[in-house]
Structure to design on (197 residues):
C-alpha cells in the first residue's frame, strides 16, 4: 500500500482555500485541511493494494456441487473518487461469478469492491478492475460486475442532474454470452428486501 502523505495534503488544501479567496483563519476552516487529509486517506487507501490478493486470501476449494453454479452478491455499497474532478461517486455493485476450482468467501467481495474503489477512478474502469481481480484471484469460469452510481460531477456541478445515475457492466468468460448474462441480470434485478429469510 502506498503511504498517504497527510501533511502534504493539508498544505495543498490550505493553498486551494487561499486560491478561492477563503480566510484560512476563520473558525470554520481552521481544521479543514486536517479533515480533508484524513478523508483522503480513506478515499485513496486502495492505491498500491493488490486487489487480486484480497480475493486469493479468501478462496477455498470448491466441492463438486459448488463448481459451475452461479453465485451473486447484490447491493454492495461503494464510494469512489472521480479522477476527472476529484468529486465522489457513490452507488451499488452487483457481482456474479461462476466458480471454477475455488469459491470466494462472500465477505471478500465487498472488500474487493472497496479496495478497487479506494483510488482515483472512472466507473467504467472500476468495474473492469473488479472483474479482472476476481478472475485473477479465484479463476472463476465467468464473472459479471454491474455498477450503478451517482456522480458528484454530474449531480452537483455542470448539468446538475441530481436524479441521474450511471450503469456499467464488465464481464469475463462464460458470463459474456447473452443467455448467461441475461440470467444473471434477471437474478440481480429480482425483487428482494435485503434480508435473509
Amino acid at each position: 500500500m502506498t503511504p498517504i502523505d497527510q501533511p502534504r495534503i493539508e498544505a495543498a488544501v490550505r493553498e486551494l482555500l487561499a486560491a478561492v479567496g477563503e480566510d484560512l483563519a476563520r473558525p470554520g476552516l481552521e481544521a479543514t485541511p486536517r479533515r480533508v487529509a484524513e478523508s483522503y486517506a480513506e478515499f485513496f487507501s486502495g492505491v498500491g493494494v493488490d486487489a487480486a490478493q484480497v480475493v486469493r486470501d479468501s478462496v477455498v476449494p470448491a466441492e463438486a456441487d459448488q463448481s459451475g453454479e452461479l453465485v451473486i452478491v447484490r447491493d454492495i455499497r461503494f464510494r469512489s473518487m472521480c479522477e476527472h474532478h476529484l468529486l465522489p461517486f457513490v452507488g451499488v455493485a452487483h457481482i456474479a461469478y461462476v466458480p471454477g476450482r475455488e469459491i470466494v468467501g462472500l465477505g471478500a467481495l465487498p472488500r474487493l469492491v472497496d479496495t478497487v474503489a479506494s483510488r482515483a477512478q472512472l466507473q467504467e474502469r472500476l468495474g473492469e478492475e473488479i472483474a479482472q481481480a476476481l478472475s485473477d484471484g479465484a479463476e472463476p469460469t465467468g464473472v459479471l460486475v454491474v455498477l450503478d452510481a451517482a456522480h458528484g460531477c454530474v449531480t452537483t456541478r455542470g448539468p446538475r442532474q441530481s436524479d441521474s445515475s450511471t450503469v456499467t457492466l464488465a464481464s469475463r468468460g462464460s458470463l459474456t454470452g447473452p443467455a448467461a448474462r441475461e440470467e444473471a441480470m434477471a437474478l440481480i434485478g429480482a425483487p428482494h428486501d435485503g434480508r435473509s429469510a
